[in-house]
Amino acid sequence: MAYKRKSRLESQKSLVQRFLFVLGLVFFMLYLVLGLMIIFWNVIPLGLSKNQRLALGILLIVYSFFRFVRLIQSRNKSTEE
Prior knowledge:
The chain is mainly alpha-helical. Helix content is 75%, strand content 0%.
């Protein structure tokens, strides 16, 4: 079994890849916090009923986890190449 270990310089990500990963994490946190704020913070000036706020908050939280999973998959795919 011939396994060639990559050197540190070969496996290091480019600056653009690291920036996009951090930006993806920021947007994941943004959507997650926004969803939680809509659900739990009663002073947000939205003209929505409690059920509509709950649905919108859950939708934003699910979307944030969808983005997180895609971010991790794209990062794993780029490390394999």
